[in-house]
Amino acid sequence: MKKFVLLIISAIVFFSCEKEHDIIVPTEVSVEYNAFLQAASEQGIKINEKKFKGFILTGDITSVTATDGIHAAAYYCHKDKFIYIDTTSIPYRINREAMIFHELGHAILRREHKTGNFKTGEITSMMNANSLPNYATQFGYKRQYYIDELFNEKKSYIPYWSERACK
Fold it and tell me: How far apart are CA 11 and CA 149, in angstroms?
């Protein structure tokens, strides 16, 4: 009888534990994924990847996003826990890190969309539903603000560059 009870308890523990899984990260997005993990670490955020399975790169994600009535360059699907990325999209080609960070914000940080603009018209959050922050190339100095806001939404601040537009 003791062996039977031990067997039942072992089976319950074995089947109730969430199994670890490998995250699927294609080499085309591995730099951005690792940058996200590094930024999280620098912000003191412990990442729980259990609810995220990986990335699927494709030339068209209309079939995934059409159920929501939208077409996007990237989309996190809560149902299958993958981020779908349209590799033919302009955001993928010119603003890849911001796009991937935005989707990882949904997938891993459980962030929702956040709208808003500074006086200059620039968006206030990496999680904006309509636009991505432009901090590539000559606007690289803006990156730290968007990283800070992504990982610490409640501690966001008004960056010096958002107060007024250049004349």
Answer: 43
Please give the Cα distance from 37 to 49 (Å, whole number). 10
Q: How far apart are alpha carbons 145 and 142 in whole angstroms?
A: 6
104 to 36, 61, 86, 152: CA distances (angstroms) = 8, 17, 15, 14
Where does the pLDDT of residue 62 fall: very low under 50, low under 70, confident under 90, or very high at 90 and above?
Answer: low
Neighbours of 135 (CB within 10 A): 20
Task: Delimit the domains of the chain by residue range.
Answer: 21-162
Q: What is the 3-state secondary structure (H, E, C) of 9-27?
A: HHHHHHHHCCCCCCCECCH
pLDDT tens digit string along 97-128? 999 999 999 989 999 999 999 988 889 999 99
